[in-house]
Amino acid sequence: MQKATLGRVYVWEIPVRFYHWLNALSLVVLCVTGYLIGAPLAIQQASEASFAYWFGKVRFIHFVFAYIFFFNFLFRIYWGFVGNRYANWKNFIPYRKKQWKEIKQVIAVDVLQRDNTPIETIGHNAVAGFTYFMTFLAFLFQCVTGFGLYAAMSTAWFPKLFAWIVPLMGGDFAVRQWHHAFMWFFILFALVHVYIVFYHDYVEGRGEISSMGSGWKFIEKEYHPTLKDEKSSAQKPAG
Amino acid sequence: MSTQPRPTIWEHAQTKGVSRREFLTACAWMTAMLGLPASAVAQVTKALETQPRIPVLWFHFQECTCCSESFIRSSHPGIADIVLDKISLDYTETLMAASGKQAEEALHDTMTKYKGKYLMVVEGSVPTADGGVYCCIGGRTALDIVQEAAAGAKAMICWGSCASNGCVQAAKPNPTKATPIHELISGVPIIKVPGCPPIAEVMTGTIVHLLAFDRIPQLDGLGRPKAFYSRRVHDTCYRRPNYDAGLFVNSFDDENAKRGYCLYKMGCRGPVTYNACGVMRWNGGVSFPIQSGHGCIGCSEGNFWDNGPFYRHLPNFPGFGIETTADKVGVGLGAATVVGIAAHAISTNIRKRHLIKEELASSEDVKDGRAEQGGS
Ligand code: HEM
Question: pTM here?
């Protein structure tokens, strides 16, 4: 039986963690307000219109978080070029043979569960990285369609940069429909994402859940001979 | 005859017994319709005094003539008359006196004599399936006619949704392959004036612009005159404050409907439809659908027939049959995902039990104090 000798690895830097939680918050707010925009509450016989503005407020919150979401996303792309190796853009696009090999491995180990060989990656494994790449594309789609719709209701110059999507998709109706449908992508993603984080922590005990709070993961030394290269501190008490 | 210059609009008006006063009144109307300030009246007057009447060829293909009907009911005192008078309508199947051979001759004459100078107006889409046999005039297919006429046209106006985006006959499954004109013709400036039908004043306004300035009006990304199509019906809707306040009609017979709340939840397409209904209204400014208690069906937007049902905010999701919105598909997928997650969690506890046991065993070492430092 192996004795688990774990080494701490600082995986998620502060900007990555900040991005992650701001992104999570914006997505929740955008999904909730977006859903309300699509299916407003049924209020029977309220007062006169001049006394209320709740729907306007819901839309306002959607637009404010749309900007936060977009610029946070841009920031994350920037960090993919200057951040540490776990944040690097190369993790997200499977363009190397090694990544494809790992994708097969992850499917065998974690999805089909045919195999118990540990996956060696410390940051995102190849499947996770590729999935996040897909969500980035979905972010982009949601931002382009969202700001494209917003261009018609805003006088600001920024949304106008996205107005081209409307003629491309054949009109506001189609843009809106797809903008609405893509909300479900984020909801499904969140369900699976949260489950998988729990799954990894449960099965591997590497501190997956807390890593997005503290930045640290706990990695078995024998699987990672390169660990000494990392800024690790295996001997520190876990507190 | 062909060498004689065409009379200007003012000259022509005089032969019809129009007085100077009447002419100036008409010029002022037109200026107002273009949305120009009073200071531009002189410019419009000058243009109509010096511009020769534009020869116009007005074609009818796959359509119901509601565009023509709308046009001749233009509300401002006889404004359509004036416009019809100002242009020289050399060919139009529904309004011309000539028929048969004479009509075809008139068409041919104008196309050769005024090559590159005439205005082409198209009402209706063009079927392209089976060699275009589904719409033939004078023994020729609409496709053939449109291509020939467009080759010598100075500019083209696509009247209504049929010519601009295909309208009902282009709805799925589109058996005749009804095609909007801009997909068939290139090289001629095309102005789209969608709507089923377009508002009469929008139609006359577009023509007046061409008459007065001899130039294409400013167009938006989809080729529609910005003067009339730059705002959504929603933006100029008098019920808009109810939308912002979250006051919606929930069914057509509820108290909210009587109070005139917003029809958004009844499927109103105002928020996604670009048109001037909220400002110009219909039948001389009497009303427009929303004012009459019915949501906008988005008749000036492409695919509006396929974006149904009209009484629901979300359309049917493509590929999922009747009565399935994106939300229903989403909830279904969400449920499937949760089931998948549960199955995976159970499987994890079975297939990974040895692994987890090992981990627990190695953790006991720590409890035994054999590890260097214990976690708490
Ligand atoms: C990824 C997160 C987002 C989600 C889940 C989301 C979701 C939604 C949903 C469900 C709707 C209602 C559509 C309908 O049924 O009519 C909506 C509307 C809208 N969203 Fe988003 N959205 C997101 C991001 C954005 C962004 C980045 C923008 C950019 C400005 C944006 C702008 C809009 C606009 C303009 C509307 C229409 C609002 C109206 O007409 O009142 N959204 N959104």
Answer: 0.86
